[in-house]
Structure formats: C-alpha cells, structure tokens
Amino acid sequence: MDRNQAIGFGLIALLLLAYSFFFAGTDEKAATRQATEQVAKVEQLQNTPAVENDSLAQAQKAASMGSFATAATGTASTSTLENSNIRITFNTKGGQVEEVLLKNYKTYQGEPLILFDKESNKTDVAFTTNDGKTIKLSDLYFTPSEIKKGTDKDVSTQVIVFRANVGNGQYIDQIYTLYDETFQLGYKLGFEGLEGQINGKNLTYTWTDHIKQLERDMKHNRSKTTINFATVEDGYDHLSISEDKEEMAVEEPVKWIANKQNFFTAGIIAENSFTGAKLASETNPADSTIVKTLASQALIPAQDALNGKAEFMYYFGPNEYKILKNIGNDFQKNLDLGWGIFSWVNKWLIIPAFDFLENYIGNYGIIIILLVLYIKTLLFPLTYKSFYSMAKMKVLKPEIDAIKERNDGDMQKTQMETMKLYNEMGVNPLSGCIPMLLQMPILFAMFNFFPNSIELRQEPFLWAADLSTYDVFAKLPFTIPFYGDHVSMFTLLMTASTILYTWSNNQMNAQMQGAMKFYSYLMPVIFMFVLNSFPAGLSFYYFVSNMVTFGQQAIIRKFVDEGKVRAKLEDNKEKRKEKKKTGGPSFTERMQEAMRAASEKEQQKKNKGAKK
User: Fold this and answer.
1) Between 536-559 and 514-531, two packed helices, what is the crossing angle to 10 degrees?
2) Distance of alpha carbon 41 from its chain centroid, rounded?
C-alpha cells in the first residue's frame, strides 16, 4: 500500500467516525418517532366506533348488489300500525313485519301474547337480477310514508308505504293496509320500472317461524301445530302433525299458507296465487322453549310484482270459527272441527248454540251445563225409544234365562231360541242400539270442539284454572304410564258417572252378559286414562251429560209401566199367531227354520263321526 492509499483510507475512517458520532442520535429519534406514530395509528383504529365498521360492511354489501346498491345503505327504524285487536311493528330494514302483538290475549304465564317477533320469525322476498346477483328485501332500506287513514268496503283502514329507491325513477314498494277491528293486514308488493332488471319468472317468498310455547301443555301444543295450506284446484291440505321432520313440495298454484297452532294462526293468503311452494316442519324434543320450527318457501309470479298485482292478506289471530269463515278459501279449516259428519255437527249444531249462550252468560261452566241440556232435549226422543226398548228386553229376561238353562251352554241353540222368542213377541233386539248409534256423532264431535275452542282458553270454573286444558286437582310425585303426573277431578267424576250409567243400563239389558258385560265396565276405565290430559271442559261436559241422562231415565221410568209393556208384548204374540195362520210363516221365521235345520244336520254329522 502506497502513501496516497493509506491517506485515503484514513480519511474515509475519520468520515465514518464523524458520521456515526453526529447522526446516530437523529436516527434513533426518527425511529422512536416512527414507532410512536405507528402505535398511535393502531390505537386510533382500535378506538374507531363500530358504526364505521358497519358502514364499511354496508359499502361492501352495496358494491355487491349492483344497481340496487343505492338502497343497500341506511339506518334501521320502526313504524307501527294498530287497531283494537293487534299492534304490528315494521322495520325499515327490509320493510317487513317485525312484531305482532295480540292485544286481547295472554300467554299461559300471563304475559303479553306476541304471535310474531324478530327473534323467532323472519319473512323475506328474494329475486335474481339479470347480472346474476341475488337481491333480498331484507338487505335493502325502505323509507316509510306517513300513515294514511281511509276506508275499504266500508271498513276503516290505515295504510303505510315502504319504498326503496333504486334510482332513475325505479323503486320497490311494500304497501301495508291494516283493517279496523280485524286481525287482517293487507300486503302489496310492487316493482316500478324494474322490468329490465328482474331475471326469472318468480320471486321467492320465505317465512321461517320458530313457534314459541303459548299454552301450558307442550305435548298437546306440538300435536296441534303444523303448516296448513290450500291449493287453487284441490283446496285444503296440511303437513302431518308428527314430531318427525316433515317436508312437502307443492307443484301447483297455492292459495294460502298458514302456521297453525292450537288456538292461533299466522298465515298469508294470495289474491291470485303462489306458483308453488316448499313446506317443512321439524320438532326438537330436547328444546323445551320451541314447539316446532315451520318453514315455508313460496313462489310469487314476477309479472304480478311488475304489474302491481302481487297482493296478499296476512292473518294474525285466533282460531275462532266465526272469524276464520269470513276469510274464505277454506281458511276456516285452520280450526279443526273434525271430519265428515262430526264437522257438520259442530258447525250447524254446537257452535251456533254455544255462541248464543255466550252472548248472555259469562261463566263458561254454566254455558257447558246449558249446552248439555240443549243437546239432551234434542235427543230425548231417541233416549226414550232406547229406554223403552231396554224395558222390553227386561220384561223378557225370565224367558231368556229359562232358554239358557234349558240349553245348558249350547250357545247356537240358545241364540236361535232367543231370536225366535223376540220374533214371537215383536221385539227387535237392535232397536235399543240404533238410537244410541244416532247419538254418536254428537258424542265424538265434542272431541274436536272442546280441545280447539278458544272461547274456553284461560276461563276458570270451580277448581279448574283453564277449561281449555286439563284440571290439576292433585299433582303426583311420579308419572303413571298412559295416565300422567296429575289427577284430573273432572275426569274422575266422568269415569264414576259412566260406570254408574253402564251399571244402570246393564240392569235393563238382558243381552249384556259375559265378556260384553266386562268390557262395558272396562271402557270407562280406559277413557279415564285417555282423557286425563284432555281439556277439563270436555270431561265436565261428559260428566254433566251422564247426570242429565240419569235424570231423564228417572222421568221415563214413571211413564213406562213394565206391566203394560208385558201386556203389549203378549198382544203382539197373539197378533203374530193370527197372521201366521192366514199368511204363513214370515221371512224371519223361514230363515230361523233354515238355520235350525242346518244346525241339526251339522249335529248329526258330529254324532256319526263320534260313533266311528
């Protein structure tokens, strides 16, 4: 290394030392300042209000919604419509119903009855745009109008319009009309100027309802909760009430869909029709707070929305026949009155009488007693005929006992001789049964009327706190299979009176012997197990009915003289003898003779076989 190189390296070393001495502090301060600024930025981000994050999310959402982005940002608020029966709350985010309160009803716990709320219910409408985006009304913000009052077919109304502006004169309207003193809410969906943006033939309407427990008996609630619907062509239908998962695809026009519970229904009725629907019902036995989950997916014709014809009617209310029948389209079938003749008995005989009594009497226990008297009065001719027939059988009991003793266990011969005796005396052994059979439709109609009668809901009588469910006279510390963990006093009274009534009839009926007699006493005991968890009103009705029947029979006995009955039978016997002399044997007698001959021939074959 020469001298010049050595001097150069020395100068470079001095410069490096000088730089490190004078500028090292500045770099540390700069580094410290940069780190402080970064921490401040982090803290600022951490302290930014959540609403800014929401705004960012809204902006991102809007960007994904194409031409509908204008309506995808906003602030949610609520609006309310109400009349004397219901209060309905709407949310501007989605423009859909958020809550429905039934003003005149309470839950079994005495709380306000909210039939529809945002936690357990959700409705929505979705459609596809021409650029492949799926738009849901629940993602759009609607501006509510002022509430306007008016009239529709002489009914006072309140109308509110929710509008989502898309831009360029395009918008989506949801118009709600609440009718005064009803449980009905009109709903109209309109798309203005959106003809070129909607892809596909249908919009998709969805409704998911996690049914909350409104009544005390969860098991009974679940057995009465399902989706009912009606098609345009075939009318009323429903999903099974089974607790298993039920699904159904309806591939034809649908008129209405309803989430039906024991005493209340929330449903939607189309002015025209839905194109089709998918329905599902599911029960989670482990969840004691949710009765069932009901889900509906219905198709709304897109042209109806574009042409202002997508009109519907919501119903949020009780399952009361006189209210439901005015809606039309078989909507009254959400109240289960039974099938066939039982339904007709309830509609034309029981309900009119019950409604009439309800107008004048406020105690429903008294109404049930008067209802029994009304029905028993109508049936009195049949009761009298049945009792008179049993009186005939009782008069002939000594002869029948003699026939049994004479034939010593030969059932076929005993039966033939008994029938011969009846024929001679002019007695029809079925004449006592026919009047009883004619009363059966009313008896079984009550099995549908009382469990579904909302009029009895939460109405007390004597020790029963609620006639629409079972009365708990005593609570058991254990559960008896098929019976339950409680004692229903009305059911016990019904059972005791039925057994007493059966015993009284058996004293009159000579044919009731052996196994038939045993089963006649067994049936009331079986019904005690079945009806222990049925409504107290039903058991009380049957108890009062039995007691009134006893009274009727006591009165009839005073007018039915068994001596006169015997004389009448002897007179019949003589008349038949005279007729037989002049006209020969009757058809019944010829049949009896043929049966006797066949029996003797069969006996001869048996005797020959025994000799061999």
Assistant:
1) 140
2) 60
Tell me the residue ranges of DSSP E strands in 74-154.
78-82, 86-91, 96-106, 112-116, 121-129, 134-136, 143-144, 148-152
**SS3 at position 201:** strand
Does the pLDDT at position 395 exceed 60? yes
How crowded is residue 488: how many other Cβ atoms within 10 Å of its Cβ? 26
What is the greatest pairwise CA distance in the chain? 171
Q: How far apart are CA 413 and CA 118, in angstroms?
A: 75
Contact 284, 292 (CB under 8 A): no
Write out the two tokens for 420: 């011969």
Long-range contacts of 557-563, Cβ-Cβ distance < 8 Å, separation of 24 or more:
560/387, 560/388, 560/391, 562/391, 562/394, 562/395
The SS3 assignment for 213 reads: coil
> Cα torsion at 110, 116, 118, 119 (round to 10°)?
50
Q: Are 374 and 359 in contact (CB under 8 A)?
A: no
Q: Provide the pairing of β-strand 246-250 with 277-282.
A: antiparallel
Half-sphere exposure of 442 (CA within 13 A, CB side): 20
- The pLDDT of 44-71, averaged and rounded, is 62
pTM for the model stands at 0.78
- Put residue 181 in one of left, alpha, beta given phi > 0 → left and psi -120 to 50 → alpha: left
Mean pLDDT of 5-30: 47
Least confident among 36-50, 121-135, 274-288: 36-50
Determine the pLDDT at residue 443. Answer: 85
CA dihedral 378, 384, 390, 394 (to 10 degrees): 150
Q: What is the average per-residue pLDDT within 355-363?
A: 93
